[in-house]
Design goal:
heterodimer; A: mainly alpha; 4 helices; B: mainly alpha
């Protein structure tokens, strides 16, 4: 195999390994936060994973359906956190003294 | 018969009037309400609001901007100095308990987030811990106050000195959101070279569509990185003393987080399309 061929293979394998490592770590430790009303409203617009990539496509790109699902979960988590932030901004501190 | 009916109506009316008068007298006389009758207008769980309207004292908490509470406030603490101080102490304790509960939930969110950076986790947990310690000390101060004026002033500091709901809560959630966006951006970014290589060698009839989706994903990723890049730096060191000016920063950064999230969603959709195109 030529030097270029080895480098090309490495370029394909390394990013795929990084993706697997990153998503695998996330999946192990992830605990979904409670869904807020605001988050639920926007989260409903989030697409669910409708189609799993074929085995050949996954092999070629290094992206599996479980990794696609994990990104989907992270996007929902982001949505949830933004919803809770907006809920906080829209609330009131009140006045404990009166 | 008609006379008896009128008499019954008259007696009934008098009874209603009398009961209303008694209720009014009770309300007026409630200068030192019991703890159970002193609902604070603060929400009880803004850190993790649920779809159920727990924040009935503030219906705007979930659906929109803050508006005046629909629930009547119990009014100022009155009576003798001792009675007023006891009333203030009780309300202060409730307010502190509510905020410490919210802070505990925020700490839980920070600890359970797998995508928050170690530095941001340490910073936020330090801020939350300092808030809890400060609120505990403030409650002791209020308990030891000997004048109503001082007790009221110290009680107000529960709000103005900490801004748990309006500052800490959105800050913590925005940092977690931004760091999670950073994680997704990193994952997608590291994957793109392999995907481009796969497109290059693909013999799929949808190769052109896959390349178009790839190009769009690349653009969306760049936009997401740009939108999310400054969120943490902009909000993580906001202090209660900066209120209300800090609110515009938080609102603006929430919009940036939403924009980044939408960009990532578009890129994610592109990725799925690419995989379908290559697998066709």
């Amino acid at each position: 195999m030529s030097r270029f061929g080895r480098l090309g293979s490495a370029a394909l394998v390394v990013p795929a390994a990084l993706l697997i490592a990153a998503c695998g770590t996330t999946a192990l430790g992830h605990s979904p936060a409670p869904t807020t009303a605001a988050a639920a409203t926007t989260a409903a617009a989030s697409p669910s994973v409708g189609a799993s990539p074929s085995a050949s496509a996954s092999a070629a790109t290094g992206v599996s359906s479980s990794q696609i699902n994990q990104i989907d979960n992270q996007l929902n988590e982001i949505n949830n956190e933004i919803g809770q932030a907006e809920s906080g901004l829209a609330t009131s501190e009140g006045d404990p003294a009166s | 018969m008609r006379l008896q009916h009128s008499l019954r109506l008259g007696i009934g009316t008098l009874a209603v009037i009398a009961s209303l008068g008694a209720a009014s007298a009770l309300t007026v006389g409630a200068t030192s309400p019991s703890p159970s009758a002193t609902p604070t207008p603060t929400p009880t769980s803004t850190a993790t609001p649920t779809p159920t309207p727990t924040a009935t004292t503030d219906p705007s908490a979930i659906s929109g901007p803050a508006t005046p509470s629909a629930t009547p406030t119990p009014g100022p603490c009155q009576g003798s100095v001792a009675a007023a101080l006891a009333c203030i102490d009780q309300r202060a304790k409730t307010a502190v308990d509510d905020r410490e509960s919210a802070l505990g939930e925020l700490a839980g969110d920070v600890k359970s987030s797998v995508d928050i950076t170690a530095g941001d986790r340490a910073t936020l947990l330090g801020q939350i811990d300092a808030d809890e310690t400060g609120l505990d000390a403030l409650l002791v101060t209020i308990d030891n106050d000997t004048t109503v004026k001082q007790a009221l002033a110290d009680t107000e500091t529960i709000v103005t000195g900490y801004r748990v709901y309006l500052l800490e809560t959105p800050k913590v959630h925005l940092v977690i959101a931004a760091d999670t966006e950073g994680s997704v951006e990193s994952v997608i970014s590291s994957t793109l070279p392999a995907i481009q290589a796969a497109i290059n060698v693909s013999s799929s009839p949808n190769k052109a569509a896959a390349q178009a989706a790839f190009n769009d994903c690349s653009s969306q990723l760049a936009a997401a990185e740009s939108a999310s890049a400054g969120i943490v730096a902009a909000v993580i060191d906001l202090q209660p003393s900066g209120y209300p000016g800090s609110q515009s920063t938080l609102t603006s950064e929430a919009q940036n987080a939403k924009a980044a999230r939408q960009d990532l969603l578009d890129c994610y959709t592109d990725l799925k399309d690419i995989l379908k195109d290559l697998g066709a």
